[in-house]
Amino acid sequence: STKTAIDHSDVENDVKAEIQSLEKKLEEIGGREEYQRASQMNTALFSTSKWVLGILGRWGWLDGLIVDSPNDSPHKNTNADSCDAYPERKQNDNQQT
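Below the sequence we write its predicted structure tokens.
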């Protein structure tokens, strides 16, 4: 069997260009230090972890996800505001509001 060399240089160049572009955008908004300062201020004003725990609690997921069968994936519903994959949880959520 003969191995064929794959030229990854185009992909590597695209990745390098994307990194440079993102670093430039980061510098335009004040650099990493400014990004970190803004992130800390946002966290002080709004607790994302409390919000996530609140959503998980409303859905009854704090004790883990219920998987009905090996073919059911708890990740198949990607809409964070929807419980359509688990109608019983949607019913419970509506009762709490």
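Residues 77-83 have pLDDT under 50 and may be disordered.
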